[in-house]
Write a structure and sequence with these properties.
Largest sheet: 3 strands, antiparallel
Shape: globular
Structural class: alpha+beta
Order of helices and strands: HEEEHH
Strand content: 25-35%
Low-confidence stretches: 62-69
Number of helices: 3
Distance between the termini: 17 Å
Number of domains: 1
Mean pLDDT: 76
Length: 69
């Protein structure tokens, strides 16, 4: 990743609602505030946004704090 890409994206860890102790690694675009990728199989195999990805967008709109990795 180049410096400009590192400044544009942030990785956030969000605990799974389904599996205890498992964390999603969600990549957030800092310019748009939207999740662009996730480590879970919903995203990697089906390109469907998971709960973790939806949480990033919801929390961004309402200015809630997230746990950052």
């Amino acid at each position: 990743m180049t410096n400009s890409e590192e400044d544009r994206y942030e990785t956030i860890s969000i605990e799974s609602k389904v599996r205890e102790g498992v964390f999603h690694k969600v990549v957030k675009d800092l310019e748009t505030g939207k999740a662009v990728s996730c480590s879970c199989k919903c995203w990697t195999k089906g390109n469907k946004p998971c709960f973790g990805m939806k949480t990033v967008v919801t929390n961004n709109k309402h200015q809630h704090r997230l746990t950052y990795s």
